Amino acid sequence: TVTVISCIETAFGLGTMTGPFFGGLLYEKGGFVLPFIVCGSMLGVSGLTCGVMLLCLRRRQHRRRAKQLEALEDGVVQEDDLVIPQRIKFREVMKNPEVLLASFIVILSGVSSQWYQPILEPFLSTN
User: Fold this and answer.
1) Residue 123 half-sphere exposure, CB side, CA atoms within 13 Å?
2) Is 44 exposed, middle or buried (0-12, 13-18, 19+ CB in 10 A)?
3) What is the pLDDT of residue 53?
4) Are 66 and 75 in contact (CB under 8 A)?
5) 2-30 and 117-126 helices cross at what angle (nearest 10)?
């Protein structure tokens, strides 16, 4: 939805703004290669984290649906009584640790795509 896209764009924008700063710091501390090593490592960890989160969410949804179907089959719940997802507020969404982690990963993606900017041009002009 629109809210999700705006959150992703905001997080990516934050990463894009702070990326060159962190890239410059890494260049000063470890030379030309360090920003790329850190970037690759962070993206790899972010990808693995996203994969684990998706698997956990899928399992949770399957368990929840199985419980609802079991209750429906046992006659404990009528079909009209099943839980229907309701609209929730933005603040409630942002209190969810999984959403915060996903936002952090998007910020890191923005950082990683931009922090080579302050070092690439000087490196290429000297070589």
Assistant:
1) 12
2) exposed
3) 84
4) no
5) 40
